[in-house]
Amino acid sequence: MASLESKYIKISSPAPHVLLLELNRQPVNAFSTEFLKEYECTFDALSRHPDDIRAVVLSSAFPNMFSAGIDWTCEPRCRRRHRSCTSRISYRDDILDIQHAVAAPERCPIPVIAAVHGIVIGLGIDIISACDVRYAASDAKFSIKALDMGLAADAGTLAYLQKITGNTSLAHELAYTARTFSSDEAEKLGLVSRIVQGGRDAVVAAALQLAKDIASKSPVAVSGTKRLLLHARDHSVAENLEYTATWNSAALQATDLQQSVKAGMTKSKESSKFLSLRPKL
């Protein structure tokens, strides 16, 4: 995986077809422009990587800190002092660039599991909101911090929360107050699907186990499922059903369905040895 390594992101393969991506910018994983660009490029490169990667776990290399959010000392909006029309356009371009980087896990055809622990502030919540599955260690603490900086959160949190969570009242409360909330409240909100007792090592282990399970399935079916779930989130039922029919009519030309049926009938474990490469989304 040397081709995917970068200055601020550690990459390893703890299991076949599974990658562990660890945010690694000292001291607190604050996102500079360079760090965010690396993050975006890493996920975009996974879509084109020649290796058969089927699941990704995203975590932090630091035991007590997932991410402190934006590095405001590097933030372009803080460096611009003249509020001319040109600078306002530049602000908008900066925000759009950040939003595009944050959404990189969605563009990736591979399921991305966030293993969250320690402190998760501001952009850290944006980052995990764009992942497919979110596990939290029991020590995790969250804050939608932008409000305390005099801004509405603009990198993804407000757009995602009411799509991916089920408690609108709590989502509004946390967004309006910027207060710190626990992993228990994150589960109540619906931001995370599982709380793992312990810290970084425990939640990463649980996320890797899930990744191994996903990696044992048909990559064509998994990629298709991710695409169809994302489409369903943003479209009507009728639109999604039509899209699904079109998608699966192409997917049925792969051999994975026949392999699955054969494995089920013979009670073999051949279904865990799928050879089909995942389709690009």
TrEMBL record:
Pathway where this protein functions: Lipid metabolism; fatty acid beta-oxidation
Task: Extract the GO molecular function terms from the UniProt entry.
Answer: delta(3,5)-delta(2,4)-dienoyl-CoA isomerase activity
In terms of Pfam families, this protein maps to: ECH_1 (PF00378)
Q: Report the family membership.
A: Belongs to the enoyl-CoA hydratase/isomerase family.
Q: Does the keyword Isomerase apply?
A: yes
Keyword Lipid metabolism present in the record's keywords: the answer is: yes
One record GO biological process: fatty acid metabolic process
| Annotated Gene3D superfamilies | 2-enoyl-CoA Hydratase, Chain A, domain 1 (3.90.226.10), Lyase 2-enoyl-coa Hydratase, Chain A, domain 2 (1.10.12.10)
Q: What is this protein called?
A: ClpP/crotonase-like domain-containing protein
**Which UniProt keywords are listed?**
Fatty acid metabolism, Isomerase, Lipid metabolism
**GO CC field:** mitochondrion
Cross-referenced CDD domains: crotonase-like
InterPro entries assigned to the protein according to its UniProt record, in alphabetical order: ClpP/crotonase-like_dom_sf, Ech1-like, Enoyl-CoA_hydra/iso, Enoyl-CoA_hydra_C
